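HUMAN: I'm a chemist; might I ask for a sequence paired with its structure tokens?

ASSISTANT:
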Amino acid sequence: MADFIPRLTRRNALIGGGAGAVLLAGGGAFVLTSQLQDFYADLVRHYIPHDPIAPGAAEAFAADYLQSDEDLGKVRPLMYMQQIAGFAALDEALGGQGPYETFVRRVATRFMMGSNFFQRNTPGEPVQYYGIAEGCGNPFARFA
């Protein structure tokens, strides 16, 4: 039995501590990424409330949107505020402020442009997500 007890040396402690740190960092990054993904999916559902969204469409969009150039340092505080108080309180506190309104509109617009939102035959048809649209950032822009 004594043969199976590892010796506690400084080398073993450093290796074990390093391996534990790597596992925690990887797990923490996974949890934070999944939380951000959930935040974006919930944001889409909150700001497009009257249109049925196909199962998994908001989640697929959120996974793609996380790959964009969004400054996640600014998004995380919004996510934490939303987790604590909900979207209604977030809208009450930040609604009408330019940066927040721009962020919300950008996310909702990117979802709508990457889906069949504007091509559905009936309003009751579920919104299917196809992928991030890489065209013009403003779908209502006028070109000369």
